[in-house]
Amino acid sequence: xxKKVVTRITIVSSIVGLMIAVQYNTVKEPTERDTRDxxxxxxxxxxxxxxxxKLLSEILLSNEVADEYENxxxxxxxxxxxxxVEQLNREAGLSxxxxxxxxxxxxxAVELVQAGFPIKSIAPELxxxxxxxxxxxxxQFIEIDGQRIVHTTAIRDINGTTTVNGIPISETYxxxxxxxESYEKAELLNNYLNISSFxxxxxxxxxxxxxxxxxxxxxxxxxxxxxxxEYLIEQNKGE
Length: 239
What we know:
alpha+beta, Alpha-Beta Plaits, three-stranded antiparallel β-sheet, 46% helix, globular
């Protein structure tokens, strides 16, 4: 295997490793003192085991790709590498994706507005808590008001306006699209969100969190910004 091919495989492997490392840390909350009881800790441990199992599956898949590359004729290696790059683009958010999932709508609580309560903007804290919970429940791809969520996404308040990827979102009406691994996982996510405390949290801000029914086909657009990576350095340029 020549030096150029080795370099390409190294870059692809590095991207896979980086994506796995950041997959469950899309948006972070401030560190707080852990006050969870034993039941909550057991629940968290169960979730961590699920994540560990998924990471092992990712590693096995990467090893299979590497073995396939090693044992394939040179003329077919370009196709394997291209398929790997396409899959990485999909997972990194650089290409449009479709699949089963759900749509979540955030909108003003009409009954509260009619009763004279003020309409509040959607708080970034609520959004990133919701995103983290969806990620924890194995939501594969997420889009908020047309903005694809990637590993560099920031949800924050800028001059009093909630932004995603630095782009202002609608103040009181936002559609969130989530794609899951399967229709069954979409059903589980729907059930979980419907019984969670998130609806109450949004209602406290005079907003309704409406969890849509599972769907067989949802499309999420690609990330429109530029992804940067401070850990990968291009070498052997021109080989």
